[in-house]
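[step 3/7] inverse_fold.run input=structure_tokens len=170
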């Protein structure tokens, strides 16, 4: 069973990881730079490019046995073209990895059939979603001073993600 981690603690953990990887608090995270820094900081953690045809229903996947993030080609294209969903998906999988989640976990639509039947899976997915937001949009005085539009532009996230994160600051 995955242990409960409060939202406040997930924010602290994500900010610590962000800083340990060498990202400034006011800096957007580039996906390919993140992958490179992860490999350098956590040598046992790796990623694998996967043809889209091999991952048709998943956006990405964390495999804790192999310490491997599987990334379909389409996600890498999204990351390289600056699509907000791409970096959020990658940060979500990084969250699974760095929070120590066990199993093979797929990033896909929220509320999958498996999530509905497993409290443990719901907890891990919720924690990874929270981690991704906190990792990409740190809770700092500078960020708190920005409106949602400025957050979205500054950190390369969707306006919806920026609005949700901004509400979490209040």
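[step 3/7] decode complete -> sequence:
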């Amino acid at each position: 069973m995955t242990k409960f981690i409060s939202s406040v603690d997930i924010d602290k953990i994500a900010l610590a990881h962000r800083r340990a990887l060498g990202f400034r608090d006011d800096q957007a995270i580039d996906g390919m730079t993140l992958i490179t820094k992860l490999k350098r900081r956590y040598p046992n953690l790796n990623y694998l490019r996967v043809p889209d045809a091999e991952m048709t229903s998943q956006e990405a996947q964390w495999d804790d046995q192999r310490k491997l993030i599987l990334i379909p080609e389409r996600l890498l294209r999204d990351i390289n073209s600056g699509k907000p969903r791409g970096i959020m998906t990658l940060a979500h999988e990084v969250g699974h990895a760095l929070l120590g989640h066990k199993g093979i976990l797929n990033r896909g639509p929220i509320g999958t059939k498996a999530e509905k039947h497993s409290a443990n899976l719901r907890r891990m997915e919720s924690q990874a979603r929270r981690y991704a937001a906190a990792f990409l949009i740190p809770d700092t005085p500078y960020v708190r001073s920005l409106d949602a539009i400025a957050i979205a532009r500054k950190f390369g996230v969707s306006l919806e993600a920026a609005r949700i994160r901004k509400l979490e600051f209040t």
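[step 4/7] annotate
Residues 7-138 form one domain.
The radius of gyration is 15 Å.
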